[in-house]
Amino acid sequence: MIFNLSDNVLIGRLQAGETTLSINNSLIKSSSTIDIYTDKYGVNPITVNVENSLITMTFLKQETDINVKVV
Fold first, then answer.
1. DSSP class of 1
2. How far apart are CA 12 and CA 50, in angstroms?
3. Count of other CB atoms within 10 angstroms of residue 26
4. CA distance 45 to 56
5. What is the rounded CA–CA span in Å between residue 44 and residue 4?
6. pLDDT confidence of 7, banded at 50, 70, 90?
7. How far is residue 60 CA from its own chain's centroid?
8. What Rg value do the Cα atoms of the chain yield, rounded?
9. Closest CA to 70 of 55, 49, 51, 53
10. Pick from 40, 19, 15, 27: nearest CA to 70
C-alpha cells in the first residue's frame, strides 16, 4: 500500500514477515536525494536501490507492520 502525501512525500507499508518494500512513483529519479523514515525506532533499511520511478528497500524481517516514509 503506497500513499502519496504530497509532491515529495511517499508512504509505504512493510508487511509483517516481509523484507522488501518497493515504491513506484514518477517523482523518483535515479539522481534523487532521498530520506527514509520508519515509524518504529531503530528500524532502517539494510539496502536501498533507486532507479527512475522505483525505489526498493530491504529490511530485516519484522514481527509487525512498519510504515515507511520516503521524502
1. -
2. 15
3. 7
4. 10
5. 20
6. low
7. 13
8. 11
9. 55
10. 27
Q: pTM of the full predicted structure?
A: 0.85
For 63, counting Cβ atoms within 10 Å of its Cβ (0-12 exposed, 13-18 middle, 19+ buried), the class is exposed
Residue 27's contacts (CB-CB under 8 Å, 6 or more residues apart) are: 7, 8, 10
C-alpha cell at 33: 536525494
Contacts with 26 (C-beta within 8 Å, 6 or more apart), sequence order: 53
What is the mean predicted confidence (pLDDT) over 32-56?
A: 94
| DSSP state for residue 64 in the 8-state scheme | S
Q: Are 69 and 25 a contacting pair, CB within 8 Å?
A: no
